[in-house]
Amino acid sequence: MKRSFLATLALAGLFAFAPAPASAQEEAPDSPAAESAAAGQIEDSSDKNSGSSGQSTFYTVLFGSGWLGTVLWLALFGALGYFIYLAIDCGILVRASKIMPQSLISNVQAAMKEGDVVKALQFCENEPTPMANILSAGFIHVEEGFDIIQEAVSAAADLETERIMQRLAWISVCANIAPQLGLLGTVQGMIMAFANLGSGGTPDVGLLATNISQALYTTAGGLTTSIPAVCFFYYYRNKANQIILRMEATTMELIKDLRNVEVVS
Length: 265
Description:
About 85% of the residues lie in helices and about 0% in strands. It folds into two domains: about 1-50; about 60-260, no CATH class. The protein has eleven helices and no strands. The relative contact order is 0.12. By secondary structure, it is mainly α.
């Protein structure tokens, strides 16, 4: 009896300290298999997140924001292209050599020293520039008295100044309209984002990201056009004002001798 009882206790101890089965080891949270499975799930989730973020590219924003968004982007690109054209055009034309060329001034001065108004008028007609137009207005009225000449020159100077400033004004138009287009795109993107959130059910995260990207991209596009346009506008405006002041002073210096000039037939 004692031997059988001791044998029973020995068998019970062996079963108590026996290793756990393989299924229990697989279910342990610290086992290598569980760690690899968790790592696989993290990689899958990161791949999904990267795929969803990759959908919110500029191309998707450009063509995935509806017809109004496409029209807004076309308008923004148009404003940017027109501003670049105007900046190059004003850089070529708003210069002293284009508005009041030194060759014209020298030829008119030489003709005025000779007292030949007709010859001076021919020089102005051969080299049409803003200053030539102003001088021509004075030379045409040479027989009507110096007061009439001054009035004609002043009127012609105002007209040429307005023509130059009208060209610069279009740069200001681009600077003002670009941020407004960007703001309109921002409002449209936010409206679409809140409409997606309020549609009921689980919102489309990809579409929501596209809507918010539309709002931010259009704002950036408008400011990208507006900021350099404002800088170029003030630069060319100040430059044009300086040239116009010099032109008016030079014109008055040239026509002051018309008080005693006689027309050569």
